[in-house]
């Protein structure tokens, strides 16, 4: 009998492709690697939500590990995320907010209603800082180390289980 | 009777309304998608059109920024507009986008080690197919059908003659 092992080649190719495509199907298409990982937090010059006369820039993030959270009053998912952010603040995480494409009045009202876990909120009405951060929808969160480098990017909502599973380990890792 | 009469008159008017509504909806879509970025210089306009067709909206799964109504696509179109007016090259603009949103936004990903399989994959597959065809042709060349022995030859002849007979019968039937 002739050796006909090569007849199995198409089957093999099929199996490899099937595994590859199956993996692709299971992946969340909205989560992907951030282009800004390991890079310096982009330069900006904006005021704070709390005080329209107070100018802040990226040096604000130097000196300690910070969780930067991009939110907006217009964003329903941000409201659901607030309890998690408050819990993180309670555990001693340093949080800075970016009030993204919002008005001062609406931003203030949001914090009054849902609580304010942020040490400070950068007011970004045009979304210019958000654009430089590659934000394409709020909420998004970044972990920035003490030297101002972006170390972790969380697209979308921080779920309650993410606090212990993802966020706290990442914060401790970059301390 | 009156009801029936009204029933006869109403459809054309309803049809007109539906038609007008459809046209308005279509026009609204055109206006929204364009954001009215307009350049007096036709060269800039064509570069703008080309860029917004080949940059991918990061929020949407598969839409160019020129084709998407999502807010981030609008921001990106504004960036392209401003960058073109201040004289940035197409590559500058594409690099600036990829720096912020990742290679995801480039419909034509750069050729890197990471993307070699993506670029070379189709060529390799075609090449493998051609090699396989060549191998099959080569192995079949020179192969001959095994010769028939005496019994088989006789059987073939009877079958063929029977076939001819039936064929002739068919013709005479017609």
UniProtKB/TrEMBL annotation, chain A:
Chief site of localization: membrane
Protein name from the UniProt record: Cytochrome c biogenesis protein CcmG, thiol:disulfide interchange protein DsbE
Coiled-coil regions listed in the entry: none
Protein topology in the membrane: Single-pass membrane protein
This protein's UniProt keywords: Cytochrome c-type biogenesis, Disulfide bond, Redox-active center
Pfam families assigned to the protein according to its UniProt record, in alphabetical order: Redoxin (PF08534)
Localization terms from the record: Cell inner membrane
Any single GO CC term annotated in Swiss-Prot or TrEMBL for this entry: outer membrane-bounded periplasmic space
SUPFAM superfamilies: Thioredoxin-like (SSF52833)
Family affiliation: Belongs to the thioredoxin family. DsbE subfamily.
NCBIfam families per record: dsbE (TIGR00385)
GO molecular function: disulfide oxidoreductase activity
Transmembrane annotation, as ranges: none
Record-linked InterPro entries: Periplasmic_diS_OxRdtase_DsbE, Redoxin, Thioredoxin-like_sf, Thioredoxin_CS, Thioredoxin_domain, Thioredoxin_ResA/DsbE_sf
From TrEMBL, chain B:
Lyase in keyword set: no
InterPro entries on file: C-type_cytochrome_biogenesis (IPR051263), CcmH/CycL/Ccl2/NrfF_N (IPR005616), CcmH/CycL/NrfF/Ccl2_sf (IPR038297)
Record's keyword annotation contains Phosphoprotein: no
CDD domains assigned to the protein according to its UniProt record, in alphabetical order: CcmH_N
Transmembrane segments: 116-137
An individual GO BP term: cytochrome complex assembly
Alphabetized UniProt keyword annotations: Heme, Iron, Membrane, Metal-binding, Signal, Transmembrane, Transmembrane helix
GO cellular component labels: plasma membrane
Domain CcmH/CycL/Ccl2/NrfF N-terminal residue range list: 23-160
Any one GO MF annotation of this record: metal ion binding
PANTHER family: CYTOCHROME C-TYPE BIOGENESIS PROTEIN CCMH, CYTOCHROME C-TYPE BIOGENESIS PROTEIN CYCH
Family classification: Belongs to the CcmH/CycL/Ccl2/NrfF family.
Function of the protein: Possible subunit of a heme lyase.
Name of this chain's protein: Cytochrome c-type biogenesis protein
UniProt organism field: Kushneria avicenniae
